[in-house]
Amino acid sequence: MGTLVNRHGEKVLRDKRDSSQRAFLMAKEIAEGRGPLYWDFRALSEETIQAYEREMDHEYPVTKQWLNQKGLDFRKDLIPMQLVPAAINGALLTDETFRTSLPGLYAAGSSCAYLLGLSQAMVSGHIAGEQASEDAKRFPDPVPEAGQLAQVQKLVKRYTKKTDGVNPTDLETAIRTIPTDYVGYFKDGDLMKKGLERLAELRTQSLPKLFAKNPHETMRCLEVRNIFDMVEMHIRASLMRTETRLAKNGLWPHFRLDYPHMDPQWEKLVVVSKVNEQMTLTTEPIPDLKECV
Fold first, then answer.
1. Do 76 and 114 belong together in one domain?
2. Which end of the chain is more exposed for a tag (fewer CB within 10 A), N or C?
3. Total structural domains within the chain
4. pTM, whole model, 2 decimals?
């Protein structure tokens, strides 16, 4: 495969362990002034390059379009890499049958706090599906509360009543920059607090001005409301965990510059709950999941 190099042409990934920590090491190179980073494919054989091209044709056509737009040819050019933190290391908390705290709601795969990968997703999805089907036999048909329906209708219609305001796509873009800029690979308490301030500013000044021109944009408006909550949960949970945590696969999902060492007392989960309409953070021991038979 290609070689990841910094702006000096030095290899960033030297062995399998480095490869398992690729995102962390890339962020470290950039933070220490050795960016930008590039993929170097120039030493690969023509056969290997053609295999990459076939893969892009089938799986990543947008990558090939981007290369063409930039006039880049990985037979002779370095390919620039942009590192953007895109994942929040959190998910729904479940029991061993993947039941959540909300009756009738199950989580599986990457939506579950313990599982990643296709094999685990298939197994957890199978177990959750069996349990959900059993619940469906016992639960009566749902009867929505009239007041709840009216509240939802009012929420949905508020965006189409306006003729001007903040576009949901623009606001979503602004919100998504906050985890990248304030809660990136290297976290710092003061910087994350500034991220919360920026989020609160957008929530106060821009969220009430959201408007939608059609049903599709109405959906985007509702998504933006949820993204606000997700980003706030991510920042507050990151602030609460006052340590650096190394994952079992060698990655650093939580690296605190102000708390650079692992703390055994933090061998536990940070749990975000809604209590009396307020976001509440607590901790729980990592559960020993029982075998589901």
1. no
2. C
3. 3
4. 0.79
| Structure tokens, 232 | 């706030």
Domain that holds residue 58: 3-81
Q: Are residue 232 and residue 136 in the same domain, yes or no?
A: no
- Sign of the torsion angle spanned by Cα atoms 274, 275, 280, 286: negative
> Three-class SS of residue 166?
strand
- pLDDT, one tens digit for every residue, the chain (293 residues): 789 999 999 999 888 878 877 877 888 888 888 989 999 999 999 999 999 889 988 888 888 898 999 999 989 999 998 776 655 677 888 888 999 988 889 999 888 876 667 788 899 999 999 999 998 888 888 788 888 888 888 988 999 988 889 999 999 999 989 988 899 888 999 999 999 999 999 999 999 999 999 999 999 999 999 999 999 999 999 999 999 987 655 555 788 999 999 999 999 999 999 999 899 999 999 877 666 55
- The closest alpha carbon to 232, from 22, 23, 88, belongs to 88
Let me know whether 151 and 259 are in one domain.
yes
- CB atoms closer than 10 angstroms to residue 100: 17
Among 41, 61, 81, the domain boundary falls at: 81
**Boundary residue ending a domain (61, 81, 101):** 81
Residues 213, 181: contact at Cβ < 8 Å? no
Contact (CB, 8 A) for 280 and 270? no
CA distance 144 to 173: 34
Q: Are 120 and 91 in contact (CB under 8 A)?
A: no
> Quick count: other Cβ atoms within 10 Å of Cβ 113?
17
Task: Look at residue 166 and tell me if it is in a domain.
Answer: yes
Angle between helices 46-59 and 61-70 in degrees, nearest 10: 120
